[in-house]
Amino acid sequence: MRVFIAGEGPDDIGDWARDPAYHPAHSGGVVESLLRNIHGDGWEIVGGCPWRRIRKFKVGRGLHGDEVRNVLGAAGEAAELGCDLIAFVRDRDGDLEREVAIEEGIHRATHRGLIPAIVGGVAIEATDAWILALLGEPNSERLRDPKWQLEEKHGINKAAQKANVAASAHLGNVPGDAKSLRGWINRAREALGGTHGAGS
Q1: pLDDT classification of 28: cutoffs 50, 70, 90
Q2: Can you give the residue range of the structural domain that contains 176?
Q3: Is residue 67 in a domain?
Q4: Cis omega before residue 125 (within 30°)?
Q5: 58 closest CA partner among 73, 79, 80, 48
Q6: Which of 15, 82, 152, 154 has the CA that lies 20 to 30 A from 145?
């Protein structure tokens, strides 16, 4: 299975956030680590892009801003590479409309058949909250500054450290209130056929 990943930056997608001249990547950040935690083999990452460099998908009216076009654009780039799956995360950063738009983008990309499988969604409020949840911390999605909490309480502030947590966490211990993370894990479990999704 060929996989394309997208995210905010190095924390999310590792070396794929760097200039394309530095590809192929050696690290896929939290997104790759979570995927490997869920189902470690039978797939490979063949492309990736930070959110800021995604080509906007050009379509007609009725879209809810650039976020929908970003999801469609990322799916389109994945399709051009012959990928079977795209996996991405986008920080919500308190923007409820962004969350709605991302889900709308996933719906439209799926409906248009741009790519067979999509594992995506927003991290509430950021992927740092996901790392806290993977460490077993409750209420991580309610924190205003999960990045500060992650560093202050656990000494974690580097992309590689976050990826290591995502790779080694027992996903069955993710707190029930980490709804955005659990939803993403369950989408990945369904797409990859893994047996260790949230709640298992």
Answers
A1: confident
A2: 2-192
A3: yes
A4: yes
A5: 73
A6: 15
Q: Is residue 36 part of a domain?
A: yes
Place of tokens 């502030």: 157
How many domains would you assign to the chain?
A: 1
* Residue 197 in domain: no
Burial (Cβ within 10 Å: 0-12, 13-18, ≥19) of residue 31: buried
pLDDT in tens, 82-121: 999 999 999 999 999 999 999 999 999 999 999 999 999 9
Q: What predicted TM-score, i.e. pTM, was given to this entire model?
A: 0.91
Peptide bond into 116 cis (omega under 30): no
DSSP 170: -
Nearest to 132 by CA among 118, 145, 122: 145
Diameter over CA atoms, the chain: 47
Q: Where does the chain show beta strands of DSSP type E?
A: 2-7, 44-50, 85-88, 90-91, 117-119, 122-123
Tell whether 198 is covered by a domain.
no
Instruction: Name the burial class of residue 61, with classes exposed (0-12), middle (13-18) and buried (19+) by CB atoms within 10 angstroms of its CB.
Output: exposed
